[in-house]
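Q: You know discrete backbone vocabularies at least as well as I do. I have my own habits and do not want them to colour yours. No explanation is needed for now; the record alone will do.
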Amino acid sequence: MTDMVQIRSWRQMWNDYIYEGVKQNLNRNAIRRNLVEAFRKELFDQMMFRMKVEDLSQAIQSPENEKLVTNLIENSRKKWRRLMEECQKHVETYNLILESDLTWEDKE
């Protein structure tokens, strides 16, 4: 288990993944995929850190942990929505990400 978990603001996510992706001429799918993976990693790392487990499969199902997961997911969704709003302001990133893009596991 790590001692700390890096939690990026929506602005840091924008700079690290969207701005840098556009600057490096990555295609829209690559930018979206990198951003989704960063959100997943951050979310799962937060869950493991807060539940004090090395793997989520070790987490005990309890009302407290369920509430924790619900809150973390909702906070991630808020950050995602804020990024969506920012993307809508720029021609290069217009409709880059949608609400439905943020999934917690890959589609087969």
Notes: The mean pLDDT is 93. The helical segments are 10-23, 28-51, 63-88. The chain has three helices and no strands.
